[in-house]
Amino acid sequence: MKLIGLTGGIGSGKSTIARRLAEHGAHIIDADQVAREVVEPGTPALVQLTELFGRDILKEDGSLNRGALGDIVFTNAEALRNLNAIVHPAVRERTAFLISQAPQDSIVVYDVPLLVESENSYTFDAIVIASAPEHVRVERLMEHRGMLESEALARIQSQAPEEERLRLANHVIDTSGDLLHTYNQVDALWQELTKVD
């Protein structure tokens, strides 16, 4: 098995790269999806969060009200630390389980937006960075997510600087061109990843 870390800032085209790698046969583990799974109703993490923050963070159906939780933690550094202390270990445990379940001969791509910012104990065989200039990312966020320019810039600037991500990279996919330009780079990457040593 080869474990590949895939990351990139918001609006960098990371999801496009993940989709193309999946088309080639990569086994994708989406960190955002895992983070949603570990706080589903009945999970230990959601029970702990409810004990800590109260039942106001739940919707009527017992699922997590992300907006209500966000209102609490994003203006309170200690609350955010407490949230992360519950959710991050649960995500790491679930991710380790998903990696262990992948076929031994597979290429596993861990699609994780905050690879630079988060603690990862995984030994990656390679780290792939989706990269595009800031103005391109701002345009994408405005077009695809309906953000104002100021919102898009704020989201980009709240993440690790591009230079930090690029320092980790074994492979950089430039997503600033058209889709074919991105696909051609991903296809070449796949050829390299599947080369028999």
Sheet of most strands: 5 strands, parallel
The low-pLDDT segments are: none
- Please state the overall shape, judged from the principal axes of the Cα atoms: globular
Distance N to C terminus: 13 Å
* Radius of gyration computed on alpha carbons: 18 Å
Proportion of helical residues: 40-55%
- CATH arch. level architecture of the largest domain: 3-Layer(aba) Sandwich
Side-by-side strand order of the widest sheet = 2-3-1-4-5
The top-level CATH class of the largest domain is: Alpha Beta
Classification by helices and strands = alpha/beta
Order of helices and strands: EHEHHHHEEHHHEH
In total, the number of domains comes to: 2
User: What's the name of the CATH homologous superfamily of the largest domain?
Assistant: P-loop containing nucleotide triphosphate hydrolases
What do the pLDDT scores average to? 92
| CATH-derived topology of the largest domain | Rossmann fold
Number of helices: 9
Question: How many strand units?
Answer: 5
Fraction in beta strands: 5-15%
